[in-house]
Specification:
about 325 residues, alpha/beta, Inosine-uridine Nucleoside N-ribohydrolase, Chain A, nine-stranded mixed sheet, two-stranded parallel sheet
Length: about 325
Amino acid sequence: MLMAMQAGSSLAIKCPLEDTVLEGGPRRVMLDLDGGGDDAWALVMLLSNEEQYNICVQAVTCSHGNARVSDVLVNVLRILDSLDRLDVPVYVGASEPLITPAPNRNISHYFWGNNGFGDVEFDRFFAVDSLDSLHAVEAMNELFEKITLLAVGPLTNVALLYKMYPETKHKIGDLYILGGNRHGVGNTALAAEFNFFRDPEAAHIVLNNSPMIVHVFPWETVLLQTLTTRWRFETFYQTTNPAVAILNQVEDVVYAQEEIWTPCDMYVAAIFLNSSIPQSVKTYRAEVELTGRVTRGMMAILHHVKDNSKHNVAVIDEIDLQEVQRMLVGLKDVKCN
């Protein structure tokens, strides 16, 4: 048994602060996630490439979404422990959307099972009941100083940060989101993408209050990627990477009946690391539908707004999939220290 107190009961500074880093120092990044297998792939992608791409994972913040936030914490700790990286601070954040009750589980389609990791029974147990950690939003407020934020779950933590500490949003270096949809194609049985659907008000707050252009990797761009489950399992069936071995167990269950592999959140991590990956990026004015019966949570692109100064999103429509595959294959035999 491993007690989750190691996740950081007080504010931990892992990466050098911006004002102490000489020119050429690492780019600092924070990952806000909701604990599914694709979130884990994003975390592994970042941690496995800290040295090669000169980055430093400042912290991981947990949100409700793919699972209860307590399960999200366990999943993050399991990945960090497998890579001997419990030095990375982890903070627990929002356990529910801004407006409750949350969307019905049957409608929002918990693809990753009840616990976010396919409900696989692992040998190693993580106790989290005694965790006395700084809240993720407070940690964000204290840590942000030109840190890039990758938000790959519902945006509740980010929205709370904007409302509780409005001055802090100006200290975020860049903001990348996995979420939203640009053609009305949803993955929740309605016309919205899962992360925005889980907390539409949070998505609305973030898109309308971010001082920077928000980089959005939407659901339709995920669908354009033709990574098959056959390629995924043939590539990673034999691995010396302990985190990938965990994900093999998870995805053996989750993708048993699927033909296409969609490690959605991993794409955002890869784009942050490797700026050559985005092939088509266009800016728009976007709003989030809050009241529609079948469109609640849908990201609506306002194509008639031509004034670039009013644009708030940069939508990533095309990526270099071969380069992403190259980076993925590089994870097969990586063990972080």
